Structure formats: structure tokens, C-alpha cells
């Protein structure tokens, strides 16, 4: 039996009887729910993060992620199955290490792998024989077997011989209570037979169903395909919204009728732009990688251009509505943006189009404020630094009436839309929330 086989068998036994300790690097929207799922499956988990503030919160039993209730966190802490630390030296005690760090874009829309690279360098100093390393961060095909493996092997250990390397794309849908980590099928792959088998065993012990694929690059492509599919289809309905709007046709009514067809159609909905960490970003990882093969990705890039342009279309519609219905220029108007988060019922503002909407309103001389029942204050962001610290205003009758227009950018359930319709001078609805609720008002404009 080869050394790799011995190491594989030893780790497989540890996984089977839950003696394997898991380390999860990056305790954000992906890492913390994953850590909880692994702990609930009976494994001991150490969570790692470079932000000491997160560790303080977790040590106090406080969760900053809505998908992880404090009671669930505290339950795993009391059972001794979860602890958090900033000390990467503790990685040496982990049998499995799962990397869940951000993969943003640069200002020029090129992949920014600095978080993966820095994490890999830290891990390489503590890597030992027999460990399984799994990457979950979304990236272009070839990152795991190329960038990550190269850095980890710089210390002398070899993937497939001394340690095992795999990829499993994260699948999170913040705010969707119908799914959690354990119930979402998990795509898994590994660098070689032994790594693939360990990935199946590990994730199979945590989630209800694993979907093995032939290589890490294939698994990386699966994640990109999922999000490119959403990006392209959202771009299509955004473009149709503009075209049908010019014809006096309501895109929302069209979609409602079209989705009655039981085959050959899947409804997607327009909005003020794309948000979240995945859909606005991931397609550009593939377009960047495609350049290496001298292949165009015109369809994907066009979808990105359409979606990126939507905030400007919305502000133009807002300006037109103010001019027509109030006889007032946007440059002399106060606008209340309802909803700062990128999707309903979550506090996540990553890549939120609402931030861009506020900037565009103010670039045109208007005054903008926001209300969001899930976001009390705008935190630091890479692209919208000037907005940091602004606080959500109340949504009472007097406050709403003091604004010239209300722009609904996110359709949170916690908002009283009927009261909003009674108080607002003008409402520009980008989500058709009033139509869905059957609320009609003369001050209402769809955009």
C-alpha cells in the first residue's frame, strides 16, 4: 500500500467515526453556516477569521449571520464542537481545512485572488501530511489545481501524495428559509482518486446529497455556470422591461402570463440592478479566463453590461417621474430609497444596486436617504466609501411625506407598503411590490 493510500485510509476512518477535526477559514456568509452544519453533523470545528471582532462576537455566543441563529451557535459551543480563533497555527490540529474566503473583482473587473493566495500561504506554514484541503470560494476553472496547489506545495508536500486537495462550490441563498447547507445538494471533486473519495465522504456526512464530478476544474465551472445562467436571464428581462415599457406594455404582467406555460419557460424578474457577492461578479471570472484561450464571451459580457446599466435607467425614470408628476427637477428633490440590501429580507448589502442609486441621485444634484429594516447603518465598502456611516431613517408618515419621491429598490416584507402609498408624494417601484400586493395609488410609477 502506498503512503497516499495509508493517509487516505486513516483520514477516511476519522471522517466515518466523526473523529476528524474540521477547520473553516473565513466565517462570513458562507463559512459560518458551513461550520455550523459540520458541527451539527458531529464533528469538532475550529473557525478561523482575520477579523478579531467576529471572534469576539462568536465567543460571546452572538451570531452576525441571519442563517445562523444564536441558539444554534450556542448549542454547538456548549457541546464543545465549535470554537473560533484568529490563530492560524491551530490549523495544524485540523484534519480537514475548508477555505471560504471572498473572491472579488479588481476595479478593472479582473479576478482578485489575493484572499485565496494569502490564505494558502498562511495554511502552507502549518500544512501536514494526511490533511484534506477543500476550497469553496467561487473562482475560475483551474484555480484549485493551479494557484492553490502551487502555493501549498511550495513547502515540499505534494497533493495526492502527502495531502489531499478538493473543490466544492458554495451554494447559499440568503433569506431563503426553504434551504440550508445540509439540504442543498453539494457538488464535490478532488485532485485524484483519493482526494475525490475523501471529499465525497466528508460532505456526504454533512449534507443530504453529494454530486461528484470528474475534476476540480469541472466543479469550479459548475458554480460559474449556475450564476452566469442567472445573470444572462436577468439581463434578458431587464432589457425586455425597457423595450416593452417603451411600447406601453407592463413587463410584470407579461411574466405572470408567460409563467403559466408548464414547459419551456422559467420566470426571471427585472430589477434596479444586480447585487450579492456572486451573480454580479462570477461571470467576469469566466470572461477573464476565456482570454487565455483567445475565445470571446460576448453573450456573458453583454449581460453584465445590461445589468450594470440598470441603476442609470432607474434614476432616469425617477427624474422623468418627478418632472411629469411633480413638476420638479431631480436636482432640487429629496429622494428616499427604500431597501439598501441587495435582496429582500436580508441585511446583505454586498454589490447592492441601492448604493449606486444613492450615488447617481446625488451626482445629479438630488438629496438621497435610505430606509432598510435590516440595515441600520451603511458599513465600510470597497466601492462606496463616501456612503459609510449613513443611517436608516424611520418610515413614519411625517418622514415619508418630507421626501419628494420614494424609490423602492428592495421589496422587504417588513415594510408597510399600504401606509407608504398613503404618505408618499411619488413612488417609483422597481420590484412591482405594489402590484403583487394589489395596492394601487395615483402616485405610483413602475421602473
Provide structural commentary.
By secondary structure, this protein is an alpha/beta fold. It has 2 domains: 3-214, 3-Layer(aba) Sandwich (Rossmann fold); 253-446, 3-Layer(aba) Sandwich (Rossmann fold), CATH 3.40.50. 41% of the residues lie in helices and 12% in strands. It contains 15 helices and 13 strands. The strands form 2 sheets. An 8-stranded mixed β-sheet has the order 3-2-1-4-5-6-7-8, with helices on both faces. A 5-stranded parallel β-sheet has the order 10-9-11-12-13, with helices on one face. Strand 5 (132-135), helix 6 (143-153) and strand 6 (164-167) form a beta-alpha-beta unit. Helix 8 (216-246) packs parallel to helix 11 (298-326) and helix 11 packs across helix 12. It is elongated and about 80 Å long. The model has no long low-confidence stretch (mean pLDDT 95).
Briefly say what this structure is.
With 447 residues, the chain is of the alpha/beta class. Helices cover 41% and strands 12% of the residues.
The quaternary organization reads as: single chain
Shape: elongated
For the record, the CATH class of the largest domain is: Alpha Beta
**CATH architecture of the largest domain, please?**
3-Layer(aba) Sandwich
Indicate how many domains the architecture comprises: 2
What is the helix fraction of residues, given as a range?
40-55%
- Strand tally: 13
Strand order of the largest sheet: 3-2-1-4-5-6-7-8
In DSSP terms (H or I, runs of 4 or more residues), the helix count works out at 15
The amount of beta strand, in percent, is 5-15%
Low-confidence spans: none
Question: Using only CA atoms, what is the Rg?
Answer: 24 Å
Mean pLDDT: 95
Largest sheet features: 8 strands, mixed
H/E element sequence: HEHEHHEEHEHEEHEHHHHEHEHEHEHE
Report the span from N to C terminus: 66 Å
CATH topology of the largest domain: Rossmann fold
> What would you give as the CATH superfamily of the largest domain?
NAD(P)-binding Rossmann-like Domain
